[in-house]
Write a structure and sequence with these properties.
This protein is an alpha/beta fold. It contains nine helices and five strands, in the order H-E-E-H-E-H-E-H-E-H-H-H-H-H. Helix 5 (123-134) packs across helix 6 (139-149) and helix 7 (158-168) packs antiparallel against helix 8 (173-189).
Length: 206
């Protein structure tokens, strides 16, 4: 499954990708968080709205921009579902919260969903994967599309997303195990140097 994405120039280096708008398809964006400086954060929000964003999914445990978004752009739906980036299994409740609050927007052709965590490496891309699965994408095709759109997307919680999808959808245990096997193989075949990515973004944002 595929949809057209905007054609844009792409940055070079992990730090440049941090807050870059990465279009997975024309209704789903992955990026990093808003800048700590208020005026830069406002400029980012204005960029998001100009891009057509109707729903923001923020999966950071450490912060929420709900008040800022509500004050400046009350028409934008803000979904906060914070979790820690602990590199273990993520709970079903995390995915439930986002899917339930997004509701019909997941399949609405007029909705543009932006998903972000802090750096846009693990939590945000993992939730974006779960949304793509809900939209009918094959798991590995979705991972390929996300990595092409955002080269720093590590998607550490991909297996959690796949397990949650199969728990909520009709299917067999064999299908679930096959999807998990394919996702593990993808992760083994296409590893990222996450330590370097995080370090470079961290240095750039100090």
């Amino acid at each position: 499954m595929s949809t057209d994405t905007p054609t844009i120039d792409t940055p070079s280096g992990p730090a440049a990708w941090h807050r870059f708008l990465c279009w997975v398809h024309n209704r789903l964006i992955i990026t990093g968080d808003l800048h700590e400086d208020l005026y830069r954060a406002i400029a980012q929000l204005e960029e998001w709205v100009r891009a057509g964003v109707t729903h923001i999914v923020d999966v950071r445990w450490e912060h929420s921009d709900a008040e800022l978004v509500a004050d400046l752009f009350p028409g934008v739906v803000y979904v906060w579902a914070g979790v820690d980036d602990h590199l273990g299994e993520q709970p079903d409740e995390w995915f439930d919260r986002v899917l339930d609050q997004l509701g019909d927007a997941i399949h609405d052709p007029d909705a543009v969903i932006l998903v972000h965590c802090h750096m846009g490496v693990n939590r945000g891309p993992s939730m974006a994967l779960r949304i793509l699965l809900e939209q009918g994408w094959d798991a590995v095709a979705a991972l390929d599309e996300m990595r092409a759109a955002r080269p720093i997307a590590n998607v550490a919680y991909a297996e959690s997303a796949v397990r949650h999808f199969h728990r909520r959808q009709p299917g067999t245990a064999a299908e679930r195990l096959e999807d998990l096997r394919r996702v593990r193989r993808w992760q083994a075949d296409w590893p990222l140097d996450v330590r370097t990515i995080v370090s470079e973004i961290g240095r750039a944002t100090r």
